[in-house]
Amino acid sequence: MTYFLFATGIENSNPTIDGGRTRRDQMAECGHYDRWREDFALVQETGCGFLRIGPPIHRTLLGPGRHDWDYADAAFAELRRLRIVPIVDLCHFGVPDWIGNFQNPDFPALFADYARAFAERFPWVQLYTPVNEMFITAMFSARYGWWNEQLSTDRGFVTALKHLVKANILAMEAILEVRPDALFIQSESSEYFHADSPAAIGPAEVRNAERFLSLDLNYGYRVGSEMYEYLMDNGMTREEYRFFMTHRLRRWCIMGNDYYITNEHLVSANGHTRAAGEIFGYATITRQYYERYRLPVMHTETNLREGPNGDEAVFWLWKQWANVLRVRNDGVPVVGFTWYSLTDQVDWDVALREVRGQANPLGLYDLDRNIRHVGKAYRKLIADWRSVLPAQSLCLQVPVLMPRERDGWPAGEGRDAAPVI
């Protein structure tokens, strides 16, 4: 039986800017540390059974084998009490200061140890996104020069990407040693690059091959010759490439893909890109990714700025939902949908590059925890569609797949629960 996952998320991005001197901790800036109990109650209010959330890695991972679990212990106990299923996001755009950045070759092993420690402490958790948006993390940190290492080179990009994907793979393996039935929902940006002229067709084709790199390496999918040469020319070794081709964990994976109005780009003949707005849309681009990997799909992130009347965000929600239904009706196994995030965010209009303190009206609730028009619309969407896509009530039992004594789930609940897929 397939359960449909209606989800939202706690925005927990935490990259550094200003040469590593400034940490953009969205859980702090959006007030979650002070209001997390209230936030979880709002998740229940929406009708969502699933929540993308993770402990802040820069506050939790203090050093090799050293952890501060205070937030995680309290927050995850409350999630379990409320029967909200966490999709645990362990690395969201940043690393602790003592690790440095994504150029550090020690990061993958250190992160795998951290993932194992989390799984051992919370063995009832089944759903994970070990590393969020590997492609975007590498792009923003090492090609655009915005975050963390703030590099703008192909070699920096390839180095960041190979470390991020290796960290994700090693973390999945570590978690599976603790919880053999764990499921991994990748949250990766689904992109497309349109040529703005005949002369731009070649550069656009390169970008459209490059957009798959993180998932190609993660799923052991052999890249094309042009991308192979690109990786080899920019610091990946043959041994490293073989690692990705031989560590295949597809059977435990759901291909989560994120789609925003900024995910499509126009490419010029000189290779420069600019925003294209929505041209193909989620359905067309998702089919491209599905045809490549043939894995179950979850729409893991979307949002749009709420205008003065709230109509824009509500219309975008229904458009995304219509796209989900379209690809699902076409035979693509879509298992979930997410409005990201629960509350408004801060300074995402400048991609966190500057500390302005500007609230971005993107959430189901504003930063005072008042529901937005899109929050009401999402609540209604869930209430209407869970009878058509059943198991919203049953899906709260998803984590109870291992013996109850190990999971620590309340006695008598969900003993016979079935897996997500």
UniProtKB/TrEMBL annotation:
Claim: Hydrolase is one of the keywords in the record: yes
Molecular function as annotated in GO: hydrolase activity, hydrolyzing O-glycosyl compounds
UniProt keyword terms in alphabetical order: Hydrolase
Transmembrane segments: none
Signal peptide interval: none
Biological process according to GO: carbohydrate metabolic process
Name of the protein described by the UniProt record: Glycosyl hydrolase family protein
